[in-house]
Specification:
Layout: E1 6-17, E2 21-32, H1 35-54, E3 60-74, E4 83-96, H2 102-110, E5 115-123, H3 129-152, E6 157-170, E7 180-183, H4 187-190, E8 205-217
Antiparallel strand pairs: 1-8, 2-4, 2-5, 3-4, 5-7, 6-8
Length: 223
């Protein structure tokens, strides 16, 4: 077997699929002259955003707080001075599984006072079947390519020496649609009305898989 001819090939698969989930980031802020007032207002707006998100039930697959900060704002940037205000920020991260409610949720979150919404960032679940399907197709292509080479030489494959996974990645550069950024208007401007839902089109996901394989083959017929 050690003297048997070797055929080395590369198999690749490229799949275009619809996204399975969408990621949103929400920054809720407050700014007051008094530190305690800034914190109280931040707690109030954070709870308002959380209550809104939770009202969508199972459509929200994941919800978590990414961080919280209370930062003093100085009167003078170049030297120490009196504090003119305190700014509070809460970062909320969520994953949406039901795209039917996504546009409505984005605009309603953007309607929360001093809320900043970034997203959606489209993606696939880490355990998505798409990754397995791409890997199988890449391996099948490697076998077919090696078999074609062997047949061209009048030989046939006799065994597998090695199969190496070259990598499996989702191409974030091809997400297509740009994230939507919304900063809430003052509460008085939106009072008594619900913002219209924005139309969001899911961006196609590109999944690539590649393998390298080596096969043993019978002696070629080169005559």
């Amino acid at each position: 077997m050690t003297n048997a001819p070797l055929i080395s090939v590369r198999g690749e698969a490229v799949l275009e699929v619809e996204p399975e989930i969408a990621h949103l980031s929400v920054h809720v802020q407050s700014q007051e002259r008094d530190r305690r007032q800034a914190l109280d207002r931040l707690v109030e707006r954070n709870q308002q955003a959380l209550d809104l998100i939770k009202s969508y039930g199972d459509a929200v697959e994941k919800l978590e707080t990414g961080g919280l900060s209370i930062t003093p704002q100085l009167k003078y940037r170049r030297r120490e001075g009196d504090i003119r205000a305190y700014q509070g920020t809460v970062w909320i991260r969520l994953v949406i599984a039901d795209f039917a409610v996504l546009g409505e949720l984005v605009t309603r979150l953007g309607d929360v006072e001093r809320a900043y919404v970034h997203g959606p960032d489209w993606g696939l679940r880490r355990d998505s079947e798409v990754y397995k399907r791409a890997a199988r197709q890449a391996a099948n292509e490697a076998v077919e390519r090696a078999r074609s080479y062997a047949e061209a030489l009048g030989a046939r494959l006799t065994g597998l020496v090695e199969l190496a996974d070259e990598g499996l990645t989702s191409d974030s550069a091809t997400r297509g649609a740009q994230p939507v950024s919304l900063m809430a208007a003052p509460a008085a401007a939106m009072e008594g009305t619900e913002p219209p839902a924005i139309d969001l089109e899911p961006a196609t996901q590109i999944v690539r898989a590649a393998v390298e394989a080596r096969f043993t083959a019978t002696a070629p017929e080169l005559g």
